Amino acid sequence: MPRAVASRPLHFIWLVDASGSMRDDGKIQAVNNSIRDTIPLMRQVADDNPNARVLVRAVAFSSGARWHLEKPTPLDDFSWQDVSAGGLTDLGKALRLVASQLAIPPMEERALPPVLVLLSDGQPTDDYKGGLEALLEEPWGRSSVRIGIAIGRDVDLEVLQEFIGDPTIRPLQANNPEALVRSIRWASTAVLKAVSQPSRGRLRSEETSVTVPLPTPVTVSPSGPSSEAVW
Amino acid sequence: MSPPPRPAFNSLGSGDRLISSTSGSPCVVREFIGAGGQGEVYSASLDGEEVAVKWYYPNWCTPSQRRSLEVLISKGTPSERFLWPSDLVSQPGSPSFGYLMPLRQKRFRGMTDLLKGRIDPTFRARATAGLQLAHSFLQLHAHGLCYRDISAGNVFLDPTTGDIAICDNDNVGVDAEGIGGVMGTPDFMAPELVRGQSLPNTQSDLFSLSVLLFYLFHVHHPLYGKRLLQIRSLDLKARIKLCGEEPVFIFDESNTVNEALPWEKDPTGEAGANAFDLWKIYPEFLREKFTKAFTVGLKDPKNGRVRETEWRMVMSQLRDDITYCPNRHENFVDRSARLWGTPPTEGAGELPPTDPCWVCSATVSRPPRLRLGKTWVILNADTQLFPHHIDPTRLYDYSQPVASIVQHPQDPSRWGIKNLSNRAWSTTAPDGSQASVEPGRSVSITLGRRIRFGTVEGAIAA
């Protein structure tokens, strides 16, 4: 029987601000919880989009930037380890780190546009413009879909808008934990869906087992008069 | 890509109470089911009944969206296959709104499950699903409505029976009446819509229907051939080119720039290896319809597209053309190209050999067939006849068979056709002898035997 429909990789990268201020008001904990809570929903979206193979990574940035989850990870294997906060807001280094991995190789020649979701509560402390330039120099960086989530009221929304690069997409402003949950849910479901297949919502499918009865071949009997043929 | 919708800051929570517009009944939200581009879907309880609620994101809560929903609600569902909006709901103190619809039964699985290879319905179930899909489109169009955005995500099927359910009907609109909002998924849109040269209408729906059917039978998109291999980022722009600006069918014999490639030439399958494998196993009459839909049908919306009634007939013929190899794999007996190439004679004559099984290469023995006017039904152990087989005035309705294939209770080597209808048939043997086949009785499957079912006479042939 036919194999599954052909699919392309869809790289989904979280860029998480782990600066010292993220410790205030439990912001980093709220980010950790929200991303963890959204994993089942992401799996569901991926399940509904046969043309995409979703692979997740995460970068944490504070004083410097590091891969928090370096290996592109299929959603089925993806679990979220807590990011801890402390230090500066080196967004530019995070963007350079992502840019280095969006080069071909290691990126595939053919893929769906990558999705980059930036979560930040403050203002960059390094050369973020240089980082953004490095990102946009890569073809996959240019064609990526970039979403910015502002945590709290101290964020420079213009920086997020610059990162997003598309005036029709505005930064999401998450001023309380509920709004953060919803923003992360939206970025990881609706955006993921829009990239894998520009399409609308659908209901969840439930697993059910299926059995098919097996037929036996029909054979033709020797001809005879109708009186014997009816039973 | 298109800009993603604005975020939802109006999500519902479990236990939230909504008010339905018409009845005023309270509706209690149960749980989040899924999120889409326009809103979120929840399960809910309305007067003790389980229902689904689609709750729009704020930017979709527009007067025009409300008006078009009101039209759909007042028109009512075209058939029970649609999970149709039944009432508007609102939340006290909120400008947002949504609508109620039936909750999808658990037996239905998404077309997306089929595309992911998680379900593998039989060809019979696929043909049944295709027939129901074509019939549902016809009913929708008969109501003066059309889709603005149908895709694999809207279509669900029961993998065992092929019964379908069509979800997310809130973007159905009045035929050829343009409003803002969703234009659709390029993969499923007619080229003239992708190019922005036309508004959704019946003709564009016919194209979408053909794409859905092609997916159902080939697990691949009809326009995604070897040109895919030149496309780095498969974004909206690329899809617009493939589906709108320069669409070329992957089996267009007169233009091979986008032909389907086999697995050995493209191990990713992106250039249509699934379709390459499956295309050749179907009867010629199915290939002809797809070829029409995706060659002339790309350019000529008015006259080039395959109509719902044509698809219904093709799907019904497909069901009747299935046979089995010794290892029980389904195969098609190709009436137009192989078995019935010349005007058939009853029973006699040398027939060309059947193809080996497409799965296991075993020899497929030629099954007996029942000739019915201009058409045929292959007789397998699981074959059933339905009202349309024995009465050309009846529509395709597979709910109640009028005949089934049975084995003689004392002699299992004798096969027969059992009368499940409430009218007697008459049968004539090649020697001219006649007998009546009362309801509940069976008549042996013997070469040359004729059976009169009311107005239609059938003949058993090799």
Outline of this structure?
The complex is a heterodimer of chains A (231) and B (462). Chain A is α/β, with parallel strands linked by helices and 231 residues long.
Please tell me about this protein's structure.
- The complex is a heterodimer of chains A (231) and B (462).
- Chain A is built from seven helices and six strands, in the order E-H-E-E-H-E-H-H-E-H-E-H-H.
- Chain A has one domain (12-227): 3-Layer(aba) Sandwich (Rossmann fold).
- The relative contact order of chain A is 0.18.
- Chain A has a six-stranded mixed beta sheet, sandwiched between helices.
- Chain A has helices at residues 27-48, 91-102, 128-137, 139-142, 157-164, 177-196, 226-229; strands spanning 8-17, 52-62, 64-74, 115-120, 145-151, 172-174.
- Chain A is an alpha/beta fold.
- With 462 residues, chain B is of the alpha+beta class.
- In chain B, 24% of the residues lie in helices and 22% in strands.
- Chain B has twelve helices and 23 strands.
- In chain B, the strands form six sheets. Chain B has a six-stranded antiparallel beta barrel. Chain B has a six-stranded antiparallel beta sheet with strand order 15-14-23-22-19-20.
- Chain B is globular.
- The termini of chain B are far apart.
- The relative contact order of chain B is 0.07.
- Chains A and B meet through helix 1, helix 6 and helix 7 of A and strand 2, strand 3, strand 7, helix 2 and helix 7 of B.
Structural class of chain A: alpha/beta
Number of strands of chain A: 6
Q: Quickly give the structural class of chain B.
A: alpha+beta
* Major beta sheet summary of chain A: 6 strands, mixed
> Which consecutive residue ranges of chain B, at least 5 long each, have pLDDT under 50?
1-8, 336-349
* Strand residues, percent of chain A: 15-25%
Question: What strand line-up does the widest sheet of chain B have?
Answer: 1-2-3-4-6-5
Find the CATH superfamily of chain A: von Willebrand factor, type A domain
What is the number of helices of chain A? 7
Largest sheet of chain B: 6 strands, antiparallel, barrel
Shape of chain B: globular
